[in-house]
Input
Amino acid sequence: MDEHDSLAKRFEVHRSHLRAVAYRMLGSLSEADDAVQEAWLRLSRSDTSGVENLRGWLTTVVARVCLDLLRSRKARPEEPLGAHVPDPIVNPEDGINPEHEALLADSIGLALLVVLETLAPAERVAFVLHDMFDLPFTEIAPIVGRSPAAARQLASRARRRVQGAATDPDADLIRQRVVVDAFLAASRGGDFDALLAVLDPDVVLRADRAAVQAGASSEVRGAAAVAKTFSGRARAAQPALVNGAAGAVWAPGGRPRVVFGFTITREKIVEINMLADPERLCQLDLKILND
Output
């Protein structure tokens, strides 16, 4: 085995960990893969003979790549907010590969990822590295270009934002389905009051870029506004399991075109994520249910 092959083998040992780090920072599977690939390119071009902790070295590289990507997002305000509705992680019925195991470990779900999207780039990186992957602030500081004390403050601000959000969804699938079924029935029947009954007062509806381009609003806030959006609609939407959770799908001719992911807390819908990007839909584990 030559030196390049040996280095590639050592890199593969850490790929799942690096993808998990990148996904939590970016909320995008494709961008996470791009960040990991960039880490490999930098590794293959670097002299790592003096690197004692390759995992730590690679984590730092991925974190810096992700920070650059997050900052570039903030520098493009003309893009619709819906462009960064996070990708849900798929749990295939035919088993989980090692990369899915890493992504699903300590699962944070769409609800928390949406909250993370609201953080400043440096806050998000500091929070993810410290609170999710236990990196010390002495290692985080040079990544975000701050002192260890300032990096600690970044993570603390992010933590307060996260803890103040509704990120503890109902885990009981039966209760989830009852709420989603009630939502769909009220939507189809144009029953505005029934819609309000299942929506949290501060519910948020978010759409990805593809849905926005098809005419959806990138973000709608408040029970009345969300109820107005759905009242008398969703007639063709069917209840479904989306990544094992209760959701809905519009699948004309059996082909999924739009997927609705719900975050339900205390039997109220607090978030609805509308996904229409064909590439993302192909990655989902969807199971259409009978009404």
